[in-house]
Amino acid sequence: MTKTRARAACSHPSLSGISPEHLRELIAALAPRWEAQQEAALTERRRGERRRAVGAGPKHQLVFIDRVLVTLVKLRHDLPDAALGRLFEVDRSTISAAIRQIRPLLAARGFAVPDRPGIRLRTLADVFAYAAAEGVRLRIDGTDVQVRRPVAGRPGRKAFISGKRRQNTIKTTTISDGQGRTLFSGVARPGRMHDQTAVRTEGIAECFRQFPNVEAEVDEGYRGLANQFPQQVRPPPRPMSKKARETTPLGKQYAWREARRRQSSRRICVEHANAEYKQWRPMQRYTGRREAFAETQAAIAALVSDRSARRATRRQTSTELVLASPAAC
Length: 329
What we know:
The chain has 13 helices and seven strands. By secondary structure, it is an alpha/beta fold.
C-alpha cells in the first residue's frame, strides 16, 4: 500500500474518529503551531539562526498531514506503532516520533465552547467564568480508566488501586453542560484518591468561592462539596436507612424516590459525556506509560469536545398557554 492510499484509508472517520470537515479544520489549526515547534527545535539544535535556504537539508519521511493522521488513528484504536509503520512504509521509530510531536499540540488545544466558535476553555477558571457569564448549570463527575499495574517494589504502587473497581486505575474529572457537551476533562490522579480529596487538590472549591452564582449537579461522591456550598452544589437526597423506611409514611418515601430520580435525570448527561471518551480505545484500558496518560486523555477529550460542541443547543420550551385555534368572540 502506498502512502497516498494509506492516507486516504486513515482519513476515513471509522479510523481517524473524526469527520473530514473536522479533520480539515484540525490540520489548519495545528499546522502553524507544528511549524513553529519544528523551527524552535532546529534553532536550539543549531544554537543559532538558519544558515541555509528554507527547504534545504533532509526531508521528512512523514509530511505533517500524515503525522496528524497517524496520531489520530493511534488515539482512536491504540494500534501498535509497528503496524502503523508498515501501513505508511516507515520505521516504527518514525511513527513514535510523529506521535510525540502531534499529541502535545492536540492536548494543548483546550475544549470547544458550544455556540461560540473559536473560543476554547483550558482551565477550571475558564469553565466557571463561562458558566457564570452564560448562566450554565454545570454537571461534575469523575471517571476511572484501567491502567497497567506498577512493578512490584515500586513506591506508591497501592496508590492506583481503586476501592470501587478493585483495579489499578487513573481518575479524571469531567465537567459538562446540561446537554452532555464537554466543557472540561482532565486533572489525572491515582485511582485510590477519593473525589472529595480531588476537589481540594484541583481547586474546584476555590472556583465555587470565586464564582458564587455558578450552580452544579453532582453525585454522592461530592457530598462534602455540597455541604461546603449548599446554595450552589446540588447532590442527590441523602440515602434513607432501612429503619427509617419502616417508620416513614409511604407518601414521603415516594417523594424521596422521585427527588432522587429527578436529580439523577438532571445529572445523567455528564455520564453520557464520559461514555463518549470510552469509545476511544485508550480510554477503555490504557496500556501505555502512565506518565503519558494525562496528555493522551487531554488530546482525546479535546477532540470529543469539538464533536459535542457541534450539537445544536436545545432551547427550554415555554410553559405559556397558547390557543390552538382563534377563539370565537
